[in-house]
Specification:
six-stranded mixed sheet; alpha/beta; 7 helices; globular; 166 residues
């Protein structure tokens, strides 16, 4: 989350990030690291998110960061409603599935997969330490977005280069 969110938001000139108030600390750190303008919407409050989206010029790049299953409360994110707003306001979606993968969806693909919504998510991040019980994580999305993260994300570059030596 730290590398993926900071890299994506930095790579979109004048990007505004919209973050759920109960997002994981790694997401918050990634957003901070991007130094992008940010708005925090009340937890799972679609009406509040829409008011914030409306307040930003339509031409500015926008990224909505939220979770499928929130770690502290166990609440489910309103994935379909967030995707609907993202479509309406031309925003990218960034979904943290760390607490959904391994538990929900076809063969553990996550909560968005269970709902049949993965094709509406622009960037999906998941950790492998919880549901799968192994070390690591993943980020998936379009070839272009993943190339941006892979090419410019210093956390990813250093981790990958270190692993390549082993």
């Amino acid at each position: 989350n730290v590398t993926a969110l900071s890299t994506l938001a930095k790579s979109l000139p004048d990007c505004v990030v919209f973050s759920d108030s109960e997002n994981h600390a790694s997401m918050i750190q990634g957003i901070r690291g991007s130094k992008s303008e940010k708005y925090i919407f009340e937890h799972n409050d679609i009406a509040h998110l829409e008011r914030l989206l409306k307040s930003v010029a339509p031409e500015r790049p926008k990224l909505i960061a939220f979770e499928s299953v929130y770690s502290m409360s166990g609440d489910f994110g309103p994935i379909e409603a967030v995707c609907d707003l993202a479509d309406q306001y031309n925003a990218l979606t960034y979904l943290d599935e760390t607490h959904g993968v391994g538990l929900y969806g076809h063969k553990g693909g996550g909560y968005a997969q269970e709902l049949g919504l993965t094709d509406r998510i622009d960037v999906l991040q998941g950790g492998l330490g919880k549901g799968y019980g192994v070390v690591g994580g993943f980020v998936t999305g379009s070839r272009l977005l993943i190339d941006v993260i892979r090419s410019y994300g210093t956390g990813f570059i250093f981790t990958t280069s270190e692993n390549d030596k082993k």
